[in-house]
Design a protein that fits this description.
Elements lengths: L4 E15 L2 E17 L4 E5 L6 H8 L7 E6 L9 H8 L2 E4 L3 H4 L6 H12 L7 H11 L16 H13 L5 E5 L7 H18 L2 E6 L2 H7 L2 E6 L2 E7 L10 H8 L40 H5 L5 E4 L2 E3 L5
Parallel strand pairs: 3-7, 3-8, 5-6, 6-7
Antiparallel strand pairs: 1-2, 1-4, 8-9, 9-11, 10-11
Helix pairs in contact: 4-5, 4-6, 5-6, 6-7
């Protein structure tokens, strides 16, 4: 089956001023030659630290921003080559749930208004059916239809995220982009939302593009994980093989950062040198080499391509 979402060699540049008194601009890559695909009823995790380009990836994948290079395809169609009406219909097939439910829901609107608005924008059903569709969406995420008349501030953080999830699901999408949807929640509430996402995926045959910096969450929900560093995908691997294969040095450092459940067990940790470089002043060669404990001369000269190293395992590293 054709993937619901495809990115092929996608790059996205932004321009910034050189300084407060210098209005000249210089550009940098927020995404650089990113390729991935999201199959039907699959969950792909995007892992990386803050500033690596995860949220830019979400905006480009939703066709909210056009790529400067490469192609984005939703259900096999390139959205930026379509008319406005066709693009809107195509966007309905991929929806997003944002990180912070406290800011993603309009505090001046009741729950009914928040969930009915997408139905009105896309004209999916007569207005007389709005209330029934909203009630169905609320039941789907474990809330009561009686909550329709309430405002977002009257709910807990977990309940607000369920409302945001209901708003995305009311359009019957085929895929959801989940931009760190549990990071603003308590640990116990995180578990409830993750279990709900698994139930919804099984019931509705949804696909997930799950963006996070939390490795255990991605291992729990996703079949495959792509690791990003400075706008590049440096590794893609199935989660079932993540602890039985050799990884990119950056991925290995992320794995070492996971706390051990045994407080008496000491983990061997390697020293990470320095901070991520500015996207405006990237080093030559591999962008990770100034921090890499195993950097070689070739790493300083040539940027490695993302290559297949094993079945379903792709790696951008000169190390053999």
């Amino acid at each position: 089956m054709r993937p619901i979402l495809e990115l092929q060699d996608v790059s996205k540049r932004y321009s910034v001023r050189r300084g407060f008194f210098d209005w000249r601009k210089r550009s940098f890559y927020a995404l650089y030659r990113v390729s991935l695909e999201l199959g039907t009823n699959k969950a792909l995790g995007i892992l990386g630290e803050s500033g690596c380009g995860k949220s830019t990836l979400a905006r480009v994948a939703l066709a909210l921003e056009p790529p400067d290079e490469g192609e984005v395809r939703i259900a096999g169609r390139e959205p930026f080559s379509l008319s406005g009406a066709e693009r809107k219909a195509l966007r309905r097939r991929v929806q997003i749930v944002f990180q912070d439910p406290f800011s993603s829901l309009n505090p001046r609107k009741r729950v009914y208004q928040l969930l009915a608005e997408p139905l009105e924008i896309h004209g999916l059903c007569p207005r007389s059916e709005f209330r029934e569709r909203v009630a169905e969406a609320l039941r789907l995420v474990g809330l009561s239809p009686d909550d329709m008349g309430s405002y977002p501030h009257q709910f807990s953080g977990g309940q607000r995220q369920r409302i945001a999830l209901a708003r995305a699901l009311i359009l019957s999408p085929e895929a959801l982009i989940l931009d760190e949807p549990t990071s603003a929640l308590d640990v116990s509430v995180q578990a409830q939302i993750l279990n709900l996402l698994l139930e919804l995926q099984e019931r509705l045959k949804l696909s997930y593009l799950f963006i996070s910096h939390d490795l255990p969450v991605l291992f729990f929900l996703c079949e495959e994980v792509a690791v990003m560093y400075l706008g590049r995908i440096v590794e893609r691997a199935p989660t079932k093989d993540f602890f039985s294969t050799r990884h990119h040095p950056y991925t290995e450092l992320l794995l070492e950062s996971i706390p051990s459940p045994d407080p008496g067990k000491k983990k061997r940790r390697r020293l990470v040198r320095g901070e991520p470089p500015s996207p405006l002043r990237l080093p030559s060669g591999c962008p990770f080499h100034p921090r890499c404990p195993e950097a070689q001369d070739i790493c300083r000269r040539e940027e490695p391509a993302l290559e297949k190293k094993a079945p379903a395992h792709y790696l951008a590293c000169h190390r053999r």
